[in-house]
Sequence to fold (291 residues):
Amino acid sequence: MRRYPFTPILGWSVSRYDKFSTCKRWYYYEYYPKYDPVVPYEQILVLKSLTSIPLEIGNLVHDMIAILLHRLKKSIAPINVDKVMDYACSLVDQAMVNKTFQEVYYGQLDNIDTIELKNRVIGCLRNFFDSHWYEWIIEEAIDQRAKWVIEPNDFGEMRVGALKAYSKVDFLFPYGNRSFYALDWKTGRIERDKHIRQLKGYVLYTGDCYGAATDCVETIAAYLSDSYQETRCNFSQHELDRFAARIEFETDEMYAYCEKIDENIPREKNCFPMEHSTFCSYCNYRQLCIK
Fold:
């Protein structure tokens, strides 16, 4: 696997550009809090650390599946599903103690329904266990488990041309000689356009870091909430070339808000305007934008 040394220059990602295109002030608080000349850094970090019910469901389900996959890498002994569910519930209890939920912080709810949160996490995990992928992993993919990539700790850093970019795949594993599956677990609503962009990123990542040909990477968005669904995509080289050009364009847009591009130092805060929209009612930083 190819690795890259640290550089301070910003790196494109689907999530970063989504924040940038939704609201420049949100983007500023998320990525440049230490440069704010008015709001104390510590106050911004408190708001940044807020979780939410949908976000925490995603975090807990992703953490549990990653734990399971790491366990399977070490041992092929059968997994006790009931113990997995009990452990997932204990993680919910820890989150209730250690995290502040946006819905409570901003007064939308008096408290979080712990039982409902556990039920939604368990429902997603049951859909994972009942999916054909789990069966395939423990029966077919297990032989190449030493080569599994589970939420890479470099956040999926890659290069698109000369540009830094990130595309953190949930689970990447080889099959056959030079082919790969890239799976992305989804616990929220289906947003196919956004998710297809993420899947294209996984193909670029696999090609850059593992030398995989475009037609040798199959991508899957596995929707675990409610009834199981999935989106499977193979992309042509033409589609990926167009996507790479889009990444370059979007990166240049974000560069334009840097005072020093190579050091990722932002322009002044007033260059990042508040862009009021329906998103404001879900934003962690909304108290900072109230006049």
Remarks:
- The radius of gyration is 20 Å.
- The first strand starts at residue 149 and ends at 150.
